[in-house]
Each structure stands twice: as structure tokens, then as C-alpha cells.
Amino acid sequence: MRTLPLITALAILLLALTAAPSAWAHKIKLFATVEGTTITGTVYVPGGGRVSGAEVTAAGPDGAALGTAVTDAEGRFSLEATRRVDHLLEVDTGDGHRATFRVTAAQLPPTLPGPKGAPASAKAAPAAETQPAQDTAAPAMSEAALEAVVARAVAAQVNPLREQMAAREDRLRLQDVLGGLGWIMGVTGIGFFLLARRERKRGGG
Amino acid sequence: MVHMVEGVVSAPVIAGCTALAAAGVGYGLTKLKADDMPKAAVVGAAFFVASLIHVPVGPSSAHLLANGLMGLLLGWSALPAMAVALLLQAAFFGFGGVTTLGVNLVLIGLPAIIVHHLFRDLVTRGRSAWAAGFACGALAIALSALGAAGALAASGAAFVPAAKLVVLAHLPVMAVEGVVTAAAVSLLARVKPDALWTRPAPQPVPAVGSNA
Fold first, then answer.
1. How far apart are CA A104 and CA A61, in angstroms?
2. For the domain bounded by B11-196, which CATH number is listed?
3. What is the mean pLDDT of residues A150-174?
């Protein structure tokens, strides 16, 4: 077999790859969580280090700029949310790396004003803050304050889970590699099929 | 980063590169003979997985490309094989993207073609296989990195800082890729020298016992 050494070489390469403890997708990633009105996050290379000094910009669903932040030496950044709208975070390091992350409006506290076009929801939030406190003096905390406490407690529980999920997605899976190799074989097979058909047609005609 | 992700390069760059890449793939397909098909598939598969081997660069890391080796072994028919492999890398690994496929094919494939023409005659002389293989692998990476900086510059980024970032990040990759390519080439030169001739010497060997 003429191609045998090549196939052996490939098999060795594959074995080395599967034995390697970490195979990571090479790209930068942006990950953010919300606590209160603060969006904090990191810019990092999966399996590698953190990206420092990168500018993270936040834009609303309408494309309006909502703020920028620069990552510190640890790759961390934080942004104050001023509106309860989806925040599309984007980082572009200038060398061809770019990553985005969406913080949904639902993650932000309802006390923040909503989108610019809809001031009604903006009014509803502060109202909820004051009214219950007057109606029922019994609870020591206003409903809004309670909500904030609960939201913080839930965020403290949920944010590590979000981080874990993001980390799982970063990992390259062996089946992806094998799937890709399968595709290459399949495409080669199709190529042979087409060639053979052309040859047969040429032979027949 | 040589694989351009979506949203980094501008539309005119994408359009131009896609047209160029399509022409290259078309030409490569005409050069792809049935006998070369298994080789193209195996080298394409190696290219596909080589991108998973990472070279740490400071806090970040860059990965091998194997475009020098691929160009050397396949010549123009590297382009169709590379197009398939790049599409799969985008789909499975998230390297690059579907719309930037043409850009990446130009950035990675063009250096492959260049080193093929520069080194194919040198490599076949047994003793120089190591040196030529190293130069071939390293040069292909350097050209790709410069091309990436050029594509970023054409998309509005300042060329010099972008080039500095991309080329600096790829200096260690050049070294590793050079060694890997040299090892592969010198192995092939010893074990299977005919793999290094993409255009075999015109000796009319009658097909014996095969239906090729």
C-alpha cells in the first residue's frame, strides 16, 4: 500500500491528540454575570490565560452604546447597567479575535428603567418600591429590598453554574474531531464516486 | 490568529477573498487527479486536526496550521482539500466562520501554494529535506500571519500594530511548525519519497495489476 505510512502517521497524530489532556477551541471568550445592577465578567482564552487591557463595549438591542470597560490584568471587567435591556457585550482585541456575550434584560433588576421608548415600565418599578412599604408596615423590608436580596442570593448560586456551563462548552469534544475526520472521508468518497462516474461516462462515450 | 472570525473583516475584503478562493479551489480541482485523492484526504485530515495542537504564547496561545506541509505535498490540489477542512474547523471547533471561509482560505492557502513552488524542488534532495522542511513550515506561517495583518488593515485596523500583534504571536508557532514540518518532510523523504513529488517524474510506468 502506497498510502500506508501516511495513514500510520495520521493515526499516531490522532492518538497523541486524544491522549493530550486539554484540547481547546482556540478563540477568545467573553463571559459575564450580573449582580444587582453590575455586570461583571472576564475575557479569556479557553484553557489559557486571561486577556488584559481589552476594551469591552456594551450595546443595547437597538445598537446604542451602553458603556465600555477595559479588562484588568486578570481579564476582569465590570459595567454598571443603567437600563433594563439586553446588553450585547463585545470585545475585539485587534488581532482578529472577537467575542460577544449577551446579558438578557431578565437578568437585570426590575428597578432599572426599561428601554428608552417605553417609559411606562420605568415608572412601574419605583412604584413597586414605595407602595408596599406603606400598605403593610409589618415586614421589616420593603418588597423591592427583599427582591434585591433574593436576586443576589440566587445570583450567588446560579453564577457558578453559568460559569461551569460556559467552561463545558469551551472544551473540544473528541466526537467533534472524529466527526470531522468522518466528514473528510465522506467527502473523499463522494469525490471518488464523481471521478468514477466521469471515467465511466468517458469510457462509454 | 490566522483564522478570521466573523465580524472582524470588512465586506469588501470578504467578497474579494471569496472570489479569489473560489477561483483557486476551482483550479485546484482541475489539478486533483484520482491517484492523488487519498493523499489529499489524509493530508487534509492532518491539517484539520493540526489546528488543535496549541503553542502557548504568553497568556494566549496559537495553534499549528500545517499549511506549509499541506502545500508542499499537494500543490494546487491543497486548496479544495483545505476548503473542506476549514469548513469543518469552523463547524466543529468554531475556528473562523462560514462567511469568512474565503478569507481564511486565501490567508492559509495562498502561502501553501507559494511555499510549494519555492520548496518542492529543494525538498526532494534528500539531505536538505530537514532544512527545506523547516523553512517551508515557518515561512508558510509567517506569510499567513502577515496576510492576516493585511486583511485586518484592509478592514480598517492600523496595519503596523495589527501586524505586530499577529506576527509576534506567531513567532513561536513558526518555530514549532518548522520543526514539525521538517520532521514530517524528512520522514517522508526517507520512507516514502514519492509523496514529495506532486508531479511525478514523467516515467511511463505501466499500471501493473491495478485497474487505475
1. 10
2. 1.10.1760.20
3. 80
Cβ proximity of B109 and B85 under 8 Å: no
The ipTM (two decimal places) reads: 0.73
Q: Tens of pLDDT along A37-62?
A: 888 888 887 766 777 888 888 988 88
Question: What Å distances lie between residue B30 and A205, B36, B38, B39, B173, CA to CA?
Answer: 21, 12, 16, 16, 32
Set of chain A residues whose Cβ sits within 8 Å of the Cβ of B2: 96
Whole-angstrom distance, CA of residue B74 vs CA of residue B115: 11
Min Cα–Cα distance to chain A from B41, Å = 6
Concatenated DSSP letters of B170-202: HHHHHHHHHHHHHHHHHHHHHH-GGGG-SS---
Domains and CATH numbers, chain A: 29-174 (2.60.40.10)
- A177 contact B CB<8A: yes
DSSP single-letter state for residue B33: -
Phi, psi values for residue B56, rounded to 5°: -65, 135
SS (H, E, C) A140-205: CCCHHHHHHHHHHHHHHHHHHHHHHHHHHHHECCHHHHHHHHHHHHHHHHHHHHHHHHHHHHHHHC
User: Which of A184, A192, A194 to probe by mutation at the B interface, max B CB count within 10 Å?
Assistant: A184
- Between B134 and B190, the higher pLDDT residue: B134
B189: which 3 cell numbers? 523523504
Hunting for cell 501553501 — which residue is that?
B112
Task: Say if residues A69 and A78 touch (Cβ distance below 8 Å).
Answer: yes
Choice among A2-6, A157-161, A178-182 with the minimum mean pLDDT: A2-6
| Residues in contact with A131: Cβ distance below 8 Å, sequence separation at least 6, in sequence order | none
Q: Residues 105 to 124 of A: which have CB under 8 A from any B CB?
A: none
Q: Integer distance in angstroms from the first to the last C-alpha of chain A?
A: 32
Q: What is the average pLDDT across A15-34?
A: 62
CA dist B138 and B134 (Å) reads: 6
CB-based contact B83:B101 (threshold 8 Å): yes
Say whether pLDDT at A3 is over 80.
Answer: no
Contacts of B85 in chain A (CB under 8 A): 180, 184
User: All 3 cell numbers of residue B67?
Assistant: 499549511
d(CA A122, CA B123): 71
